[in-house]
Specification:
Layout lengths: L1 H12 L2 H43 L3 H6 L3 H34 L3 H40 L4 H9 L1 H48 L1
Helix pairs in contact: 1-2, 2-4, 2-5, 2-7, 4-5, 5-7, 6-7
Amino acid sequence: MKELDLLKKDWQKNDNSFEQVSEIEIYKMIHKKSSSIVKWILIISILEVLLWTLLNLLFNNDDYFKELKHDEIITYLNILSYFSYGVVLIFIYLFYKNYIAITTTVSTKQLMKDILKTRKTVQFYVWYNLGMIVFYCIIGFTIAFTYNPDVNILREKIVNDGKIMAITIGILLLTIVLLFGIFWLFYRLLYGILLRRLYANYKELKKIDL
């Protein structure tokens, strides 16, 4: 925000006739930066979907479930996958709408509202993805323990020994927590920086609007 600081210094040095010009210049700069940030949020979300789609194609689990002789699991997981993609596409559409709204707005108050709305949408998107990661982990572990014949011995031990059951549950919970933490850091780096910059723009607009 160095450019904004320079503009504000010029504003303070000059007379009242220059005050209005400075506010307009600051608004234009914030407007341009905010628009650019939201555009990058949109681009990153699209690239993220493409990446997950590519990974799903490369690591297709259909053969694994066919070996387990439970083809119905493939159907259920496909339905879940379509639902997940549908929700993500809705979020991408909302990001696009936010980008258009911020790009075309000419009001300081409206720009502030659009910035807060965009931040909230991104936060919902991140928490939805983190929730789905945990959900998929639970589904994956449940399928492995229920249908995979390779874990029959372990399954019998878990049923007959409470200590082994507790250790197994602890390991599974630790694995989920670690995966959650890794993806939380990933999203914090991916979207957190952009959201902080967007909120900094909001605070500058708030100063102008006072």
